Amino acid sequence: MDLKSLIRDVPDFPKPGILFRDITTLLRDPEGLRYTIDSFAQKLTDAGLKADYILGMESRGFIFGAPLAYKLGTGFIPVRKKGKLPAAVHSVEYQLEYGTDCLQVHQDALPERSRVLIVDDLIATGGTASATAKLVQQIGCELVGFGFIIELQDLQGRKHLPDVPIVTLIEY
């Protein structure tokens, strides 16, 4: 299946000069969504990425991370923006193009030394994925790899990530 044909290009969003890769058109296609999850799970398995938990970043990482966790027989842990989780949290601040942001995970979400796979819809500059990897390190868990549906290769986000396997389905 040609997944790129199910992803809409939106020019000049969120600002002029940016070509946004919109996955909502993929998500609305039942066959495309099923194929994406099944293919992604198989590719992660083929890469030998065995995890106890999948961490998905707010919010599109939830969309792909939870069904992948189900398919792979792991737990799913949401990584949220600051102030969204009700119990004690680990936090990490990270740089954005204009300012900073903060990601959090519950302190009791992961047992130490758990094997963790980080999943998101897209890797661009790598900032959010890198910050999530720092959370994994803070907790004392082992990062086994990253999985992304889409990689924007020109932005070179990979170079900002730890040296672990990175699995992607689509490259632009």
What does this structure look like?
The chain is built from 4 helices and 9 strands; from the N terminus they run ββααβαββββαββ. It has 172 residues and is α/β, with parallel strands linked by helices. It has one domain: Rossmann fold, CATH 3.40.50. The strands form 2 sheets. The chain has a 7-stranded mixed sheet with strand order 5-6-4-3-7-8-9, sandwiched between helices. A hairpin with a 7-residue loop joins strand 1 and strand 2. Helix 2 crosses helix 3. The model has no long low-confidence stretch (mean pLDDT 96).
Measured between the Cα atoms of the first and last residue, the distance is: 16 Å
Order of helices and strands: EEHHEHEEEEHEE
Query: CATH architecture, please?
Result: 3-Layer(aba) Sandwich
> Major sheet: size, sense and barrel closure?
7 strands, mixed
Shape: globular
Task: List low-pLDDT spans.
Answer: none
Stated plainly, the CATH topology is called Rossmann fold
State the strand order across the main sheet.
Answer: 5-6-4-3-7-8-9
Strand content: 35-45%
Rg (CA only)? 16 Å
Averaged pLDDT, please? 96
How many domain regions?
1
- Count up the helices: 4
Range of helix content: 25-40%
Report the CATH C-level class. Answer: Alpha Beta
Please give the number of β-strands.
Answer: 9
Structural class: alpha/beta
